[in-house]
Amino acid sequence: xxxxxxxxxxYWEDRVAFETEGAGxxxxxxxxxxAFNTFDGLPYSSRYYTLLKERMALPVWKAKxxxxxxxANKQFIIVSGAAKTGRSxxxxxxxxxFCQSVQxxxxxxxxxxxxxxxxxxxxxxxxxxxxxxIGHEVGYSIPLETCCxxxxxxxxxxxxxxxxxxxxxxxxxxxxxxxxDQAHERTVSTDVLLGLLTDIALQRPxxxxxxLTATHPGPKLLGxxxxxxxxxxxxxxxxxxxxxxxxxxxxxxxxxxxVLEIHHSQEEGDIVVFLATTQEIDLARDxxxxxxxxxxxxxxxxxxxxxxxxxxxxxxxxxxxxxxxxRVFLTSSPNEDLFWAVHMLNFVIDAGVxxxxxxxxxxxxxxxxxxxxxxxxxxxxKQLVGPTGKTFCLYxxxxxxxxxxxxxxxxxxxxxxxxxxxxxxxxxxxxxxxIDRPDPEGLMQALxxxxxxxxxDDDGNLSEIGIIMSEFPLEPQMAKTLLASCEFDCVSEVIxxxxxxxxxxxxxxxxxxxxxxxxxxxxxxxxxxxxxFTLINIYKAFKQNQQEPYLSLIDACNVHYATxxxxxxxxxxxxxxxxxxxxxxxxxxxxxxxxxxxxxxxxMPSFGSKGNIINIKRALLAGFFMQVARDVxxxxxxxxxxxxxxxxxHPLSAYGTKTPKLGLPEWVLFHEYTxxxxxxxxxxxxxSPEEFIQMAPQYFFFNLPPSESKDILQNILDKGAExxxxxxxxxxxxxxxxxxxxxxxxxx
Length: 748
What we know:
Blueprint: H1 2-23, H2 46-56, H3 64-73, E1 76-80, H4 87-101, E2 108-113, H5 116-130, E3 138-142, E4 145-147, E5 154-158, H6 159-165, E6 175-180, H7 188-203, E7 208-213, H8 219-224, E8 230-232, E9 240-243, H9 251-265, E10 270-274, H10 278-291, E11 301-307, E12 325-331, E13 345-350, E14 353-360, E15 365-372, H11 375-382, E16 390-393, H12 415-423, H13 440-452, H14 464-469, H15 476-487, H16 491-502, H17 515-523, H18 531-546, H19 559-573, H20 578-597, H21 610-624, E17 628-631, E18 638-640, E19 646-649, E20 667-674, E21 680-686, H22 689-695, H23 698-702, H24 708-730
Parallel strand pairs: 1-7, 1-8, 2-5, 2-6, 3-5, 6-7, 9-16, 10-12, 10-13, 11-12, 13-16, 19-21
Antiparallel strand pairs: 3-4, 14-15, 17-18, 17-20, 18-19, 20-21
Helix pairs in contact: 1-3, 1-4, 3-4, 4-5, 6-7, 12-13, 15-16, 15-21, 16-18, 16-20
Pfam families: HA2_C, OB_NTP_bind, WHD_HA2
Domain Helicase ATP-binding: 68-234
Keywords: ATP-binding, Nucleotide-binding
C-alpha cells in the first residue's frame, strides 16, 4: 500500500504541473503538441482547457494539494464549503485521479447525492470537465435510470441507490473512494449510510471516505469521527443581508412584492425565492405570471420557474443562461446546492422557514410542521450570491434559529429502514453506528409493524416473507400487498396500484377558475369501489391512449414523437401529469422485472370482474389492515381503529367529492393519513368488515384499543364462529378441514 501511495504522489505532482501549464496554453497549436486524456486515451479537446481555467478559478482549487495529501494518508476526510466553491464536482474528480494513480487496485469512485436531478446535473458536468463521454468513464444511477458501463471510474448516485446496492455488495468492494455529499442535510439515507460506512471502514482499511458539507460540520458530526481532518474551503464573501422584520405569517406576500420591486429597479441578475411549501411555489408562479401583463416591456421579461424538491429539469447548466429575461427561481428545497450552476444569480429572498413532515409513531401518521431554518442554512443561502448581490431575510435579525438541521431519522417513519437493516443482518442495529440513534418509540413501532406483516420470525430476524419484501423498492406494507396479490391472482392490478402510489400524484391542481372543469374530467375515471381502483382506470386509459389505432398509420420514424405529443395533449385535456404517469409506468416495469427475477407468478389482467375486485381488496388488506377506518356518524367522520383518531376523506378522493352517485361507505381502507390542518385520509377504497376480519392477523385484532367499531367486528366474529359450529354439526366430519372465518391469509 505504501508503494502505491508513493506512486500516487508522483503521479499527482506530474498532474498538477501538466494542468498548470495546460490552462495557460490558450494559443497552442494542438496539431504540434498533443496531450492525451489518461481516462480514455484520446487527445484533450480545446474545451477541456477552457473548462480547466474555470475550474482553477474555483475556491476549492486552492485546497487540491492539501486534499490529495490527506486522501493518501487518512481514511476519513471532511470537506466543508458553500454551494459555489466547486466541492461537489471537483473533489469526486480528484478522487478518480487518486484511484487511477494506484491503478484502481481498491476500486472506483462513487459520489452520493440526495436529489435525483442534482445527481444527473453533476455527472454531466463532471464528464464535460474530464473530457469523457457520459455513461462511459463517468456515469450516474438514480431510481429508474442508470447510465453506466464497465469503463465507469466515477459514478454519481442517490444515497438510496447505494444502500440498495449494499444488499448484494455489503462491503462495497467495487469502490476505493466513497464520497458522501450533502452530509449536512442529515437525511435518513445519508445517516444510515454514514453509520454503515463506519463499520465497513474497520474491515477495509484501504477504503477512503470523504464527507462533503455545505456548512461547517456541527459538533455531533465532528465528534462522531474523532481526529478526522477537516478542510474548510474559502468561499466567496457573503452578500449584503437585509432583514425586513416580516412576521412568519406575511412572508409570502412580502416575497412577491420584493420580486416585483427588484424587477422594477432594473438591477441585473436572477432571483431565487426560498418558500416553505410546494403549494406556495405554484401559487407564487401563477401570481407572477398574471402580474407580468402589467410590467412595462422596457423592463424586460420576468420568468418565474418552479423548482420543486425531488424534481428537476428546470435549472440550466453553466453557459445556458439567457440574459434577455430575469428568471425567478421559486423553491422550497432545503438544498442550496441546486443553484450551483446559476451564474447570474444576484438576489436571494429567504422566508426563513421550511416545511417538515414529523412522524408520530403512536398514530402512524405524519404531521406537517412549519419550522425555522437553521443558522447554517441561512448562511448557505447568503453565499449563493457574490459580494455584489443582496440577500433579503424575511425575518427579524434577532430571530433565534437552531444551530443545526435536525436529523430526519428522528422525525421519520423508519419501518423501511429497519427492514433494510434486518436484511443487512444487523440485529438490534448493533453494527450501524448512528450519529443520532432513532427514537426508541419509533423503533419499537417499526418492529411491531414488521411483526404484524409477518416479516420477522419468532427470534426477531427476517422471515422468508421479509427477505422477499426487502427486494422491492416499496414501503413494507405495499411490498406485502404485492406478495399477497400473487396468491390472490391479481398481480397485474396490484402492480399498477403500487406504481401509481409510488410515483408523484398524477392529479394536476389547476388555477381556481379551472378547478371545476378539472374535477369533472377526473370524475370520468372514478371507480365506485374507491381510489385504488380509480388509479387503475387512469393508468389503463393512459396506456390505451398511447396505443390508439391511428398511430399505426404514422411513419415509424415519427411514432415516438407522435405518441409523446398525443400523451401530452391527452394529459392536458384531463388535467393529469404526464411526468407522473411516465414515472408510474417505469416503476411498474421495474416491479414486474423484480417479480420475474425472484420467480414469482405474474397473473394476466382481469380488471373489472367481481372476483378480481374482491381479490384486489384482499391483497390490499393483507398489507394495509392497520389502516382501516369506519364512518361513525354517516357524515364523513372516519374513526381509525388503530389509534382512535377521527379524520375526513381528502377532497381529491372519489368519496371526498360526496357525489350522490357514489355516496360514503361505512368501512374504508386508506393509504395515507396526514395529521395536519386538513386532517385527511387519502387514497380511500371501500371494504366490508367481513373482509377485514378475514385478512387481519388475529393478534393484531385483539391488540386494537377498545371502541364501538371493534365491538361491531367482534360481534361479526362471534356470529361467524357460531355459524361455523352449526354447519359443522349438520355436515359430515370429513369437512372438518374447512377454514374458519377468522383464518388469516396464508401469505401471512
